[in-house]
């Protein structure tokens, strides 16, 4: 739902499906790797999900259920991922952010690096913006 609703003004239906399937096909496997993964849930329903790859200083994912947008869960998750990164000795985080989330990340102190790029997700081109935040 976070991808389907949150990305609808920036991506086509096929692009949203490719983003969803790309994450869905690997997120659970990634949890077993050296990823830090957080989930906020209520009544066994996921409300927010975030994942950081400390080996690459990469914010891998951050999703919030659409009905919880604007309630601060994204900020809680981002602050938590930054704390994990600092604890691991990282001095910055970066990621390929979806176009609909640029404002959220800018508000959180991230800056755009270069121009938006098109990445391939399941043979579908999806525009993303590389963003970076210094943690010191």
Could you please describe the fold and organization of this structure?
The protein has 136 residues and is an alpha+beta fold. The chain is built from five helices and seven strands, in the order αααβββαβαβββ. Strands 4, 5, 6 and 7 form a four-stranded antiparallel beta sheet that branches. The chain has a three-stranded antiparallel beta sheet with strand order 1-2-3, with helices on one face. The model has no long low-confidence stretch (mean pLDDT 89).
The gross shape turns out to be globular
How far from one another are the termini?
Answer: 34 Å
Radius of gyration: 14 Å
Listing every helix as H and every strand as E from the N terminus to the C terminus, the arrangement reads: HHHEEEHEHEEE
The overall pLDDT average reads 89
**Beta-strand percent range:** 35-45%
How much helicity do the residues have?
Answer: 25-40%
Q: Helices and strands in order, then pairings?
A:
Layout (H helix, E strand, L loop, with lengths): L1 H5 L6 H12 L2 H6 L3 E7 L2 E9 L4 E7 L8 H15 L4 E7 L3 H6 L3 E2 L4 E5 L2 E11 L2
Antiparallel strand pairs: 1-2, 2-3, 4-7, 5-7, 6-7
